[in-house]
Specification:
- The protein is α/β, with parallel strands linked by helices.
- The chain is about 60% helix and about 10% strand.
- The two termini are about 55 Å apart.
Length: about 625
């Protein structure tokens, strides 16, 4: 079977996340003040030198043909379609002027139109396909980096923010790469070519045109900064709305249970209105800028043409040359207008590129040592020596404080203690989601920072308290433990986890789609699927974080039997608040405030009348 198509996708059906707009980590934000961040896209572009080269060739051809058209227009005006004694000398070579036959012009016009249209279409196709390829590569690179970043990174940013960068920013880059940059490049090439030709036609008229340039450029740059600032503010406000929508929709049952629908609606509407107001200001400033630029350009062109007509009367310039100059001036004006139009879009893309590059340049806090070793299959010996750890977001609070613990291969250890004692933190360090601030953790006498994270985690199967499942079928979710597993193996592990019965009763059995985050299942059902997933992984170390907390008494007994079989030959660490589940552990570790305060078997700890005895008394009334 094709196991690839069976893999669950954590973001499938999460369309809401893909419509989220960027909410940047505000403390890290920097505004894009130039196009320099766009340079960060270059490594993705140069992967395709052939496509880039062919595009540039057709870009130059397209602009060259546009400029060549001005010579055709000049010839038509100067040479006309019949006898003209005042025509310039070059007209003698134009057969159409001598015979009055229009066929030469028509044939040229048809051939030129076909060639120009074909070249322009090919140019547009090339830049669009190149842009799509580049954006696809960027998306894959960003997602790959996100998958490799350590959990410490996700303490600093919200998941919605990250998804916004992956979707909104890449879409913005796509729009600009496939559109604005193409127009900008074509405008620049055409503008430069037309400007040079204008000086050859009439350097006096050209100087008049370019003296007006500063009158346009300076206001455009000033207004551009204002537009950029308003655009960024609008994006920030929209990001706030997106974040609120994401949180409220993901927790819709809680919102409705507490009758806070109107509260959430009012908050969302406020953010959307703020977005609208910022965008209105941006559009107003942009409108004034475009009006000023258009008016200035038109007045300048009319003035130049008026001066040119006076020059025609004195014989300093021919009518055809004047017409050609006016057409060239129009090309320059159009190109500048196009650049002004795309200025803001390019700066927005520069900001998006900067935000994406922040992710791509983010280094995982958990890395593989250069002298890393590998374990084929661990025996399961775990040794913690004087381990102290604080979460990056709470550096002054010690989640673990000088913890030492030796777990022998095949031993079953229960971790008990009040909430916040450090039990789950211990699991996170064993999985090397974080590195301890001091001390050392070893697996089979090898420090785990000398193992690659991938090699280390392949030795461990975990059942988490929150039971994270994905959209997709029961087959998909259980197979997440071992992608190559057959359906028969999955069904066997589901039976061992006491999940086979309820899965069979689903509309399509194991093929039933469980929905986003498996919301169609009860807490106990989700937990049993998670247990089956861990059993299927067949790892030498098993971590159970409140693995039976959502099960009823009958299901818990069945799963405990499965665990008893599964734990044979494996090192098992169990976190449990329900002390009835840990009585048969080889050793119980009692934790409080990040320290190990006691350890032993159930009866021994009861006799000592310490913290464990107090917890037991609360549950068993002993």
């Amino acid at each position: 079977m094709n196991t690839r198509t069976q893999q669950p996708s954590p973001v499938r059906d999460a369309g809401m996340s893909y419509t989220a707009n960027i909410e940047r980590d505000k403390s890290k934000r920097t505004k894009a003040r130039s196009f320099r961040p766009l340079v960060k896209l270059w490594p993705f572009v140069v992967r395709y030198p052939a496509k880039l080269t062919v595009f540039l060739i057709f870009l130059v051809l397209s602009s060259t043909m546009t400029l060549a058209l001005t010579f055709f227009i000049r010839g038509m005006v100067d040479c006309g379609f019949g006898e003209n004694p005042d025509a310039p000398e070059y007209c003698a070579s134009v057969s159409a002027m001598q015979t009055g036959d229009l066929s030469g012009y028509l044939v040229f016009a048809i051939v030129f139109a076909l060639a120009f249209s074909s070249i322009s279409s090919i140019r547009a196709y090339l830049i669009n396909t190149l842009g799509q390829r580049v954006v696809a590569d960027i998306r894959m690179a960003v997602y790959t980096r996100l998958m490799k970043l350590s959990p410490a990174y996700y303490e600093r940013v919200r998941t919605g923010e990250v998804l916004s960068r992956l979707t909104t920013d890449t879409t913005l880059v796509e729009t600009v790469v496939t559109g604005s940059i193409s127009f900008a490049l074509r405008s620049i090439v055409t503008c430069i070519g037309a400007s040079i030709m204008m000086f050859f036609v009439s350097w006096k008229l050209a100087l008049m045109v370019f003296l007006v340039g500063p009158l346009i450029i300076i206001p455009a740059m000033t207004a551009g900064r204002r537009i950029r600032r308003l655009s960024r503010d609008g994006q920030d406000k929209l990001a706030n709305a997106s974040a609120r929508a994401g949180e409220s929709l993901l927790n819709i049952q809680t919102v409705q249970a507490f009758t806070r629908e109107e509260f959430e609606i009012d908050g969302f509407n406020t953010d959307v209105e703020a977005t609208y107001n910022k965008n209105q200001k941006r559009l107003l400033v942009r409108g004034f800028l475009m009006t000023f630029i258009s008016a200035t350009m038109m007045i300048s062109v009319v003035s130049v043409i008026g001066f040119g007509n006076a020059s025609i009367g004195t014989g300093q310039i021919s009518p055809g040359a004047m017409t050609q100059f006016a057409f060239l001036a129009f090309l320059v004006v159009s190109a500048v207008g196009m650049l002004t139009e795309t200025w803001t879009n390019l700066l927005r893309a520069a900001g998006a590129s900067d935000r994406l590059s922040e992710i791509l340049s983010e280094d995982p806090s958990i890395t593989t040592a250069k002298d890393a070793r590998a374990i084929e299959r661990a025996s399961g010996k775990i040794d913690l020596k004087n381990v102290t750890f604080s979460y990056p977001t709470r550096p002054k609070e010690k989640a673990l404080n000088n913890v030492s613990l030796l777990v022998q291969p095949g031993e079953t250890i229960a971790l008990v203690g009040p909430s916040g004692a450090g039990k789950t933190t211990l699991f996170q360090l064993l999985l090397r989601f974080y590195d301890p601030k001091s001390g050392q953790i070893s697996l089979d006498d090898i420090p785990i920072d000398k193992l690659s994270p991938d090699n280390l985690r392949r030795q461990i199967a975990i059942v988490q308290q929150e039971t994270p499942l994905f959209s997709g079928s029961a087959f998909d979710n259980i197979r997440y433990g071992r992608i190559a597993a057959s359906n028969a193996e999955i069904i066997a592990t589901a039976k061992a986890a006491h999940a086979h019965g309820f899965i069979q009763k689903l509309p399509d059995g194991y093929e039933s789609d469980l929905g986003e985050r498996a919301l169609t299942l009860s807490g106990g059902q989700k937990q049993r699927i998670a247990i089956a997933r861990a059993i299927l992984r067949d790892a030498p170390i098993l971590l159970l974080d409140e693995a039976t907390s959502a099960l009823d008494a009958q299901s818990e007994r069945e799963v405990q039997k499965a665990f008893a079989t599964l734990a044979k030959g494996r090192t098992t660490l169990v976190i449990a608040h329900r002390l009835a589940t840990v009585k048969k552990a080889d050793r119980i570790i009692v934790m409080d405030e990040g320290k190990i305060v006691d350890q032993g078997r159930h009866d021994e700890l009861i006799k000592r009348k310490g913290l464990y005895a107090q917890l037991a008394e609360l549950q068993f009334n002993t």
